[in-house]
Design brief:
This protein is of the alpha/beta class. 36% of the residues lie in helices and 12% in strands. Bound molecules: pyridoxal-5'-phosphate. Pyridoxal-5'-phosphate binds next to α3 and α4.
Length: 425
Amino acid sequence: MSKLALFGGDAAVSGTLTPFRSHGEEELQAVRQVMNSGVLSDFVGASGPKFLGGPRVRQFEYDSQLAFGVEHAVTFNSWTSGLIAAVGALQLEPGDQVIVPTWTMSATATAILHWNCVPVFADIDPHTFNISIQSIEECITSRTRAVIAVDIFGQSADMDEINLLAKKYDLRVISDSAQAPGALYRGRYAGTLAHIGGYSLNYHKHIHTGEGGIAFTDDEGYAERLQLIRNHGEAVVGDAPESDRVGVLGYNFRLGELEAAIGSAQLVKLPEIIAGRQSVATNLIYGLQNLPGLTMPTVGEDRTHVFYVFALKVDPTSLGVRKDRIVDALLAEGAPVMRRYQNLHLLPVYQKRVAYGTGSLPWSLSNSNSTVRYERGICPTAERINEDEFVGIPTCSYEFGESELEQVLRAFCKVWENLSALQER
Ligand SMILES: *Cc1c(COP(=O)(O)O)cnc(C)c1O
């Protein structure tokens, strides 16, 4: 039995892992063409075709519509911008409540605050880490107007159940599919199964344009509002008469031509990139599934998982070792593991109920919001899993070739052989 690196032994993973790379010659060529054209952005914040962006932006949107089978695609300079625009497109009233899982990236919930609406945090399903349907129903009040489902770690949330609930309670649905580009749910693509959905295109995602995001909708009205919010909100989209235009707060959320050209080239590679991540996951499952007290990711039979993160759960009770000790040991071995994910309700912005200024907007906008709670204990599953069980492998961050996989698996096996040395007496 070799000595754990935590106690001075040699690390199982030698050297540093190579960052995951999705770009190559195709992107370089696309960028060169745009540079040669001299037009790095062709948006104009006034009526006319340029209100919708330059040729590369419109091409990338068109390519995405075809690739994912959706009526409208609207690009943004980040998916954070896309989420803000999506919530804005729903035309909620200040003080309205929007249900969102606590187990997600911060932008999913701050997008709600930007429109003076109130995030209500739902708990997660303990097997998939996605929003729990039962918890959504428990969170619904007379002020609830929308749900943002998140396809966390690369697997679609239970969209049919969510859409059914939404019909029953007259709610709008947004799907934050930032981590699940190209994932399938009952034969359709993640991100296209809500009123508005979409993907992130930032550096850390499966495919990326440096920074960027893309929203999808089958509804023309939502598409127009997304386009308005993206581009200062001041011009007409299409040829609607002035009297029909909605007033809306606009931003500059526009994607550049370079990024859009890279996006079109990346889109072609997405199936291959997904297959690569799925193969890494298959190998991880093969190498780790026999370790006791370690649960492999759950993948629904009606959907595919694109493995943005390979999410494991340890059972500290049966192992007799705290999760943090196991993670300490894995990290010392050089294994790329995540110790925690998110419990957004515990962030200061919600604990203190101060989003901007020093007052308590948007919570003070409506009496009904005094019953919205953020205390520890409101999302027991997400809290327990984050503290005691979750260990993630960021499958989209590194290359994980044969040798890297072998070393990472060796790190896990070594730690499991030495569990008794990690027990606290
Ligand atoms: C990455 C991510 C975002 C934000 O996307 P950006 O393009 O970085 O702004 C939002 N939600 C989730 C779940 C994400 O993983």
